[in-house]
Amino acid sequence: MNELPLQALIELVRAAGQAILPYWRQPLEVSEKSDSSPVTAADLAAHACLRDGLQALGLGIPLLSEEDAEIPLAERLGWSRWWLVDPLDGTKEFIAGSDEFTVNLALIEGGQVHFGLVGIPASGRVYYGGAGFGAWRVDPGQAAQPLAVRDTPEEAFVLVASRRHSSPAQERLLAGLGQWFADLQLTSVGSSLKFCLLAEGAADCYPRLAPTSQWDTAAAQAVLEGAGGLVLDLHGEPLRYPPRADFLNPHFLALPQAAPWRSQLLQLARSLD
């Protein structure tokens, strides 16, 4: 992490957020990409800000962005590390006028997430961290605050889930968890903020048995890992980001590393997937 200009990266993530805000809660023209996901001028403005800002840092690290993903696999296979970016995560929330959208910036090394930043344009808050580095939350004009997961629920078992994306397997998993934990509280949140709630000890688990892409998860996974959490595929292995032809993640579970119910949750998820 020492070789990365942390303050410059925080400022860049905030600048990308500022590029988004003029379009927020304004009339928008929404286009559809080949995967049927929406894209707006705000997505493209944030992408341009991050692209130009990362290039200006002069680190020589290539960029893979949701808004510029048409890079041949043969070229990406030659990368040892790269920036993985979602300039506007939670576009549907953004279009709906919600403040639950983020700017995601992750550094991938050898197919593993090394470090990540998640910015909230509506407030200027930035989460950042990585395994072995720790995790932090910083608000404009304030000192950074360290983050840590909670290994056991405080009162209710707080489960976070996507506000707009689910699947039959996901719904069965939520029902199964409801039988385990009598006092289960479901919180629906947009974008990568779900991981951040776990990282700051405000939630206990984020299961995802529905589609996501690599740029949706990498930055916030780094933050969660820095705070003592894990993001596991259903084989119990950490979620990885190898170069491949498509960018879809396997289904996963985000949880505290020391959660005593970890193995039972994996078993339940595997039985439903």
TrEMBL record:
A GO BP entry is: sulfate assimilation
Q: What is its EC number?
A: 3.1.3.7
Which UniProt key words apply to this protein?
Cell inner membrane, Cell membrane, Hydrolase, Magnesium, Membrane, Metal-binding
Q: Which cofactor does it need?
A: Mg(2+)
Tell me, what is one Gene Ontology molecular-function annotation carried by this entry? Answer: magnesium ion binding
Q: Which residues bind Mg(2+) 2?
A: 86, 89, 216
Extract the Pfam families matched here. Answer: Inositol_P
Tell me the residue numbers annotated for binding substrate.
66, 88-91, 216
Signal peptide stretch: none
A single Gene Ontology CC annotation of this entry is: plasma membrane
Top-level EC class: hydrolase
What this protein catalyses is: adenosine 3',5'-bisphosphate + H2O = AMP + phosphate
Which family does this protein fall into? Belongs to the inositol monophosphatase superfamily. CysQ family.
NCBIfam families in UniProt? bisphos_cysQ
What is the protein name for this chain?
3'(2'),5'-bisphosphate nucleotidase CysQ
> Which lineage ranks, top first, belong to the organism behind this chain?
Bacteria, Pseudomonadati, Pseudomonadota, Gammaproteobacteria, Pseudomonadales
